[in-house]
Amino acid sequence: xxxxxxxxxxxxxxxxxxxxxxxxxxxxxxxxxxxxxxxxxxxxxxxxxxxxxxxxxxxxxxxxxxxxxxxxxxxxxxxxxxxxxxxxxxxxxxxxxxxxxxxxxxxxxxxxxxxxxxxxxxxxxxxxxxxxxxxxxxxxxxxxxxxxxxxxxxxxxxxxxxxxxxxxxxxxxxxxxxxxxxxxxxxxxxxxxxxxxxxxxxxxxxxxxxxxxxxxxxxxxxxxxxxxxxxxxxxxxxxxxxxxxxxxxxxxxxxxxxxxxxxxxxxxxxxxxxxxxxxxxxxxxxxxxxxxxxxxxxxxxxxxxxxxxxxxxxxxxxxxxxxxxxxxxxxxxxxxxxxxxxxxxxxxxxxxxxxxxxxxxxxxxxxxxxxxxxxxxxxxxxxxxxxxxxxxxxxxxxxxxxxxxxxxxxxxxxxxxxxxxxxxxxxxxxxxxxxxxxxxxxxxxxxxxxxxxxxxxxxxxxxxxxxxxxxxxxxxxxx
Length: 479
Ligand SMILES: [Zn+2]
Description:
Layout lengths: L1 E8 L11 H15 L2 E9 L9 H9 L7 E4 L2 H4 L3 H12 L5 E4 L4 E2 L3 H34 L13 E4 L2 E4 L1 H15 L4 H10 L11 H8 L7 E4 L2 E4 L8 H21 L17 E3 L7 E6 L5 E6 L5 H6 L14 E2 H17 L11 E2 L2 E2 H24 L5 H24 L6 H11 L9 H11 E7 L3 E6 L2
Parallel strand pairs: 1-2, 1-3, 3-4, 10-16
Antiparallel strand pairs: 4-5, 6-7, 8-9, 11-12, 12-13, 14-15, 16-17
Helix pairs in contact: 4-5, 12-13
Zinc ion (ZN) binds next to loops.
C-alpha cells in the first residue's frame, strides 16, 4: 500500500515531548515498516495551528488526493489532521473517502478501512472538537490564575499614571501625581468639567491629548488606582503601588453617584446611564447630502477613546453594507471628531442663552376673547392661596375655622369660573416654546456643566444639526 504521511506541529507544541516533527516521523515510519507499507510522500506543516486548513502541506495533500499518488493517509494522532470537527469530517469524507483513500491514525489505532473505524469517524471528530474547547478553557483559566496571583494583564494598556515593567505596573511620577491631583480636586468639590478646563489650560501636561469629561470620569472610577486588577467583572488584589487609597476611592465613588443625582434634580430629568452615551449621536445630519451621521469610537494605544462622526455616503464599506444610508456617493463630507464638534455646539447654545431675543416670543392669542396666559396665571395664583390656607390650618392652633372655610369656598368658586373660561378657549401651542425658553434660561453656563448635563440640554434644545466641513454647523432648534 502506498502511504502519504501527514505531520503537523504548532509553534507551542514544538517544545513538547512526543509532538516534535522528528518524533512523529520516526513513529510513523516504524509503523509503516511493520505493516509493510511504502511511504511515498511526507507532508509536513511545521508551526501551524490545526484550527483551520490554512496550511501549505495539507493543501498539497488535498490537491494530490485525486491523482492516485497514495492509497492511505497516515497521521500520528487525529488532532494532527485537524482540531476542527468540521474540517476533520470534510477531509475524511469529502477528500479521502471520495478518492478511495484510507485514513489511519496511529495513536487511536483508527483505520477508516475497517467498519469500526468508520463508526469512529464521527465520535473522534467530536472529541477533537472537545479538545479544542478545553484548550480555550485552559487559556482562560491561565489568565484568571494570572490576575489572581496579582499579575497585571500584560496585553492591557496601562491606565494613565502607570507603565508596564516586568509584567507589572509601575507608577510614572508625573502622570501619577496628576491622577492624585484629579482625585483631590474632585473631592474638594470641583466639577469634572472645571477640572478638565484647569488641566487643559495648564497644557494637559503628561497627556498627549486634551482632557475630556469621559476620560476624567473613567480615571475617577477606575479601581486600578487603588492597586487592584479588574478582570472579567471581578476585582483582584494587585501587586503594584496604589496611587489612591481605598478610603479616598470610596468617597469619590459616592460623590460621583451623588452629583449625578443632583444633576437629575436640577433639570428634573431621569438619568438613564446606558441610553444615548454621546451628546450628539442621532441628531447630526450631513450638510451636503442630508444623511444621518453615524458615530464610531476607537481606542488609541494609550487607552484614550476618540469618537468620530462620519457621513455614511462617504464610507466605502458602508456603501456596500447599508446601501439605504447612502444619499450621495459623491458626498464631500470629511469625518469630524466629537471632541471638536461638541464645544462648537455648546458655544452656540451659550450664545443663544445669552441673547434669547433672536427667538420668537410666545404668542398671546385671544381665543373667544380670552387671554389664556392671563387666565392660567390667575389659576396658578388661586392654587397657591388654597395651599396657603391649608398650611395655615395645619400649623395654627387658634385659627378661626369658619373664616378659613369661607375663604376656601370663595377661592373654589373663582377656580371653577376660571377653569370654565379656559375650557372655552382654544389654547395656542406655546408649550414647546415656553419649555424651550425655560431650559435655555438655565443654560447660560452650559460650558461649565458636566457632560451629562450638557448632553441633556443639547438633546432637549436641538432637533438636528447640519454639519459641514471645517466644523461649520447649522442648528435646527427644537421650537
Ligand atoms: Zn453626506
